[in-house]
Amino acid sequence: MELHFYPGQNLLVVLKSNKPVAKFEAMGGPEKIGEDPRMAEEPTWPGKYIIEKVEAYRTPTWRYSKLAWGTKLKPTPGKTDVWYQLKSGKWGSLNQLFGLNDTQSLVKSLNKQYYGKSEIPATWLFNDFGPLAIRWFKDINGNGILDGKETLSGQMFHTTPENEAEKETGNPVRLVHSHGCIHLKPNDRDRMMAIGAFKKGTIFTVHKYHERY
Predict the structure, then answer these.
(1) d(Cα 11, Cα 23) in Å, to the nearest integer?
(2) In the chain, which stretches have pLDDT less than 70?
(3) Dist. CA 4–CA 19, nearest whole Å
(4) How far is CA 85 from CA 82, 94, 130, 149, in A?
């Protein structure tokens, strides 16, 4: 099985024995560098890659991605903080994690924005990379293994909190340009997972913006 992404067409094609078995709408970064002050938008870089793994992604680079999607939450009695569950089973403070004085208001506002409910959800639903990120790398030495000087790309397949909420609330799922990653619709990600399209070792090609399928 192979994957081919055509950013100029917002098209992701799954091939098996060189024949298309599925096609999905997908959206990468813009063709030219953008001006977002947090992190400039960039193209999804053309090249041939190998899928390495699927994971719940966390990064301090994006504020709401410090917590993995699905992390358990509960409000504190003081009505200004929210506790989140650590791997140990103990609870940490969102106020401390985000450096804020009132994360209860923040979380309620985010939940209202996405799900229409001004309440603290049972789990964290606001990671910028969605529940799962599919990671890939460029195979520099040609042995098909992530080793040597190779590293996982900072670009990856993922959904967004907006699209996950659209799915859950029964609204149309509308993709938007990323900062370089490839955005997928939640149902399409699930289908691709089911057919084995993101299996470790899968060859994945990002075509140039002018190329067409």
Answers:
(1) 7
(2) none
(3) 12
(4) 10, 10, 18, 35
Within 10 A of 191 (CB to CB), how many other CB atoms are there? Answer: 15
Structural tokens at position 66: 């410090």
**What does pTM read for this prediction?**
0.94
Strand order in the sheet with 91-93: 73-75, 82-85, 91-93
Q: Give the chain's mean pLDDT.
A: 96
For the domain 2-59+130-206, what is the CATH superfamily, name and number?
Answer: L,D-transpeptidase catalytic domain-like (2.40.440.10)
Q: Are 57 and 156 in contact (CB under 8 A)?
A: yes
Q: Where are the domains of the chain?
A: 2-59+130-206, 70-115
Q: Which helix (H) or strand (E) holds 107?
A: helix 103-115
Half-sphere exposure in the Cβ direction for 54 (13 Å, CA): 16
Neighbours of 22 (CB within 10 A): 16
23, 192 in Cβ contact below 8 A? no
DSSP per residue, 56-69 = ----TTSGGGSS-T
Amino acid at 206: V
Give the residue among 136, 189, 138 at the shortest CA–CA distance from 159: 189
pLDDT in tens, 151-181: 999 999 999 999 999 999 999 999 999 999 9
Distance CA 180, CA 154 (A): 9
Residue 120 · residue 41 · CB < 8 Å: no
